[in-house]
């Protein structure tokens, strides 16, 4: 997500040139492979999906394995706005070792996926992965887990597709409130940011999570660190507060983590809290393990 700090500085040049694809600034894809689940002693299946517009999308299906019995829960993992699943997905491999099957997919333009990453086309990619999971395992619980940009995309996707794909819960680590808001936050920490600040009005807000978060009617857990230097902690907290205003007795869970951006799962205690939520779709205890 830190690449947004650099890309946002291009807004002025893009405004002058009349570029209409500003959403490409959200993404910084890489095609270089760093590792595979095999490097972590995990079995996996290469999956090629087809988005609605025909774009080929690549993912890894990592089934639950190891000593912990299969829980009948599967997670659709959405990574951040840079690199690809070969570096990002390793932060969630522990799920497969704890009875939870995992689908890690790359948005178009990332890794082995075709095309160019722009909004809203990447939402088709997420939908292709959810459709594959539901068709193959219709009886399992489906939880969408996103980190950083992936968390904000997950909020949009779950709000729109929770009924169609029978999504059971959403886990979001370090989601931001809105695209213009996180752009302004990035600029505020840059000494030259004031030069580009007026051009943040060009950043599309159509897909801001704050616009749709209250439309979600499944359990949600948000995890955020006050030490996060990329996505302001207060933005994640504001999304949580919006969730608590939903009607009905729907679990809205808040877990304060620690450390840098999307590093929560380095802490085994926080992993346990996340795992309890993913398995039960209920908020874990505020204290203890």
Brief summary:
This protein has 289 residues and is of the alpha/beta class. It has helices at 3-7, 11-17, 85-88, 121-136, 149-161, 179-188, 193-196, 233-243, 268-280; strands spanning 28-29, 45-50, 56-62, 73-78, 82-83, 100-105, 141-147, 169-173, 220-224, 252-256. The two termini are 29 Å apart.
Task: Chart the SSEs and their pairings.
Elements: H1 3-7, H2 11-17, E1 28-29, E2 45-50, E3 56-62, E4 73-78, E5 82-83, H3 85-88, E6 100-105, H4 121-136, E7 141-147, H5 149-161, E8 169-173, H6 179-188, H7 193-196, E9 220-224, H8 233-243, E10 252-256, H9 268-280
Parallel strand pairs: 1-5, 4-6, 4-7, 7-8, 8-9, 9-10
Antiparallel strand pairs: 2-3, 3-6
Structural commentary:
Helices cover 29% and strands 18% of the residues. The protein has 289 residues and is α/β, with parallel strands linked by helices. The chain has a single domain (30-178, 203-280), classed as 3-Layer(aba) Sandwich (Rossmann fold), CATH 3.40.50.1820. An 8-stranded mixed beta sheet has the order 2-3-6-4-7-8-9-10, with helices on both faces. The protein starts with a helix and ends in a 9-residue tail after the last helix.
